[in-house]
Amino acid sequence: MDKHIRNISFVISILVSILVMSVNGGTHRLSCNFPAIYNFGDSNSDTGGSSAAFWPANDPKGETFFHRPAGRGSDGRLIIDFMAEHFGLPLLSPYLDSLGTNFRHGANFAIGGSTIRRLNESMFLNGVPPFPTEIQVVQFRNFKERSTRLYKQAKRKSERRGLPRPDDFTKSLFTFDTGQNDLAAGFRTMTNDQFVKEIPDIINKLADGISNLYNEGARAFWIHNTGPIGCLAVTLRGIHDPLPGYLDRHGCVKFQNDMAIEFNKQLKKKVMELRKKLPLAAFTYIDMFAAKYKLITDAQKEGFLDKAEICCGYHENNNHVWCGNDAIINGTKIHAGSCKDPSNYISWDGVHYTEAANHWIADYIINGSFSDTKLPLSQACHRLPLQSQVELH
């Protein structure tokens, strides 16, 4: 009898161990049922904020998927769009768009040109929008407070249409895709040594924004690092006879990518610190640099043209006419239209990616291939065990 009981106990202990491993450290976690996504960032994830706040998007932007300008710096969908589609959610409405918006399943606070850290006033006057991370987080706080009040005041179900459910905020996914414009601003205004000294302050500003969202109830964070800015097609098209060592072995500007790598190194360290500081939150750090660099270096293998080829715009001999615009160059009228088939290109306009490239990248990051947790997007609500945090060092 005792032996029979011991055998049963042994079997039960094995089953319990398997269950614990599955929940805490295995790959068979339950999928997260995110009811909404709240996104913060720059033009890499701006779904129409800039278009609503400053100037409407022009043709041929949006031609591939939307068949009209849709506020995105691409011919179609962005990575954030594919993420929303993965959960069966509507594409995110920009927070600043007052027409046709539906915020039941999230909102997008990203604005093209935005930085993490506030820039000086002169840069605002030169076209840099005054919507750094700090302001985007303030906008979220206002959005949450006002939408919750309106939801609770509503007497009829129809009055709540398009408003987020107050209980959904804590259950939602909070995504960040920002930092590229901080790097670009640093390249324009500082030496490399000066900018390296500024990186900790920039990272801390982002961490402050995340902490403020945590205090507002945010619990699941999905954070993209910054991409290989030294591989942007518009930069590469302007390089002629570079000095030895200026380009890396794949033909990208080495010092710019080195700055991005240093930025990302410090960002990853900060995310690990936040895991300890904000113990109720789940953090997923996405190596967007590696994902985009893989696409760029494997361009032909993946069916794309060279990284320096640009689908929309005119960029020759240091003359730049941006996508959809007209200009007179050397007495000749130039219309910067789009290419015949954007799906062959990585670069849409020299700075932003095509829908085809965004789709390629999204597929890899959604399945967890480039996340430090190795968890797919569908499991981004699961907190990383402390032991795994130590191993990431």
From TrEMBL:
Pfam families cross-referenced by the UniProt entry: Lipase_GDSL
Alphabetized InterPro entries for the sequence: GDSL (IPR001087), SGNH_hydro_sf (IPR036514), SGNH_plant_lipase-like (IPR035669)
Gene3D superfamilies in UniProt: SGNH hydrolase
Keywords carried by this UniProt record: Glycoprotein, Hydrolase, Signal
Segments traversing the membrane: none
Signal peptide limits: 1-25
Source domain of life: Eukaryota
Cited PANTHER family: GDSL-LIKE LIPASE_ACYLHYDROLASE, ZINC FINGER FYVE DOMAIN CONTAINING PROTEIN
Family: Belongs to the 'GDSL' lipolytic enzyme family.
Name the record gives this protein: GDSL esterase/lipase At5g14450
Native species: Ziziphus jujuba (Chinese jujube)
Name of the gene encoding the protein in the UniProt record: LOC107415221
